[in-house]
Design goal:
- The protein is mostly helical.
- The protein is built from five helices and two strands; from the N terminus they run αααββαα.
- Strands 1-2 form a two-stranded antiparallel ribbon.
- The protein is elongated and about 50 Å long.
């Protein structure tokens, strides 16, 4: 489920269209869900809220002349590595999957 969240974030928050392998990964994780559809809906709600509240913006420079452009990839990775995200995954899995560890 943790990896699904990262794939969802990368597939849905981007400056340019994501590569097909990210979308394919998203489908694979979804097809192999362990905790049911509602758990994934709850995870998506968390991701949307996290990204809206924690977006990192790049300052304009020679390599990136667009000021204040969001850096979604960095923001998604930061979410994936956060203790809060891990705690949310554990909470959701515990809520929807009684037999999961």
């Amino acid at each position: 489920m943790r990896e699904y969240g990262l794939a969802y974030c990368l597939a849905n928050f981007h400056q340019t269209e994501p590569s097909n392998d990210i979308k394919a990964s998203l489908n694979i994780y979804f097809e192999n869900m362990i905790a049911g559809y509602n758990s994934y809906e709850e995870l998506v709600e968390y991701i949307v809220q996290y990204i809206n509240n924690h977006l990192v913006y790049v300052k304009a420079n020679e390599e990136n002349p667009k000021p204040n452009e969001p850096v979604y990839f960095f923001s998604c990775l930061r979410m994936y590595e956060s203790k809060d995200y891990q705690a949310e995954i554990e909470r959701i899995v515990k809520k929807y999957c009684k037999d999961c560890k």
